[in-house]
Amino acid sequence: MEKKVALVTGGSKGIGLEAVLRFCSLDYHVITCARCPDTWDATVDKHPILQDVDFQIVDLAQSEQLEKLFETIQKTHKRLDVAVNNASPKLRSKGPITDVPTAYLHETLVHDLWVHVLCMKLELPLMKKGGAIVNVSSVNGIRPTPYAAMYSAAKHGLEGLTRSVALEAIPNGIRVNAVAPGATWTPRWEERKKEHPEIREDVEKLVPIGRFASPAEVVNAIEWLCSEKASYIVGQTLVVDGGISLK
User: Fold this and answer.
1) Of residues 4, 13, 28, 151, which has the active-site annotation?
2) Of 58, 90, 165, 208, which one has the fewest beta carbons inside 10 Å?
3) Which candidate in 155, 193, 194, 232 is catalytic?
């Protein structure tokens, strides 16, 4: 039986890496991309199962590179069965919107919305009936987020994109959904802990469940949305946040 093909953008660490590992364990042929080959090489050394992953060095914010990625997928793999739009680089647009450099605001809009628009535009023609797309949104896409307004706006946009494209795609048997993670312990939080040693404990006090999510818990939701168990789920966002959006 021919393997299914899954694309996970931003798959070298965090939720993206966990998604790559999960789809490898499910015997998918996995394609992923990131900007830093050194990070990927170090990750493969830790996880030998990744040796067969089709890793591409791509800056998705560069439209020429993004288009080349999909040309390669078309040429090499012919199709996609699953796409997880996860890539989201380090956020530089934090702070009061009046103080954030305009270039950083634009950068966030590109990385956290426009890139996903282009990926979906190019993923859908590679899919047939039974295909599934999951966009990695954020709890900040379903509530206001002062001092990260552009990020919140981009994720709100991704929510609207998910629902709208879901209605366009479902007549072709392709389901489009999203997950909205809350506080998830990833390398990005590890970096923040270096400057704020108590950050994990401080954030966990704000989460009703009392802890961070692991990347695997978010990927559980992604896997389910891509599976036949979610065959009647269309245009929805599965919030994986330990209850924080309820406050």
Assistant:
1) 151
2) 90
3) 155
**How high is the pLDDT of residue 1?**
73
Instruction: Report the alpha-carbon distance of residue 174 to residue 234 in Å, rounded.
Output: 9
Task: Quote the CA–CA distance of 106 and 98 in Å, as a whole number.
Answer: 14
Q: Is 194 a catalytic residue?
A: no
Query: CATH code at 213?
Result: 3.40.50.720
Distances, alpha carbon 180 to alpha carbons 44, 64, 82, 155, 212, in Å: 27, 29, 18, 9, 14
Q: How many domains does the chain have?
A: 1
Domain extent, residue 225, equals 5-246
Residue 151 designated active-site: yes
Strand pairing partners for 133? 83, 176
Q: What is the pTM of this model?
A: 0.96
Residue whose structure tokens are 């919030």: 239
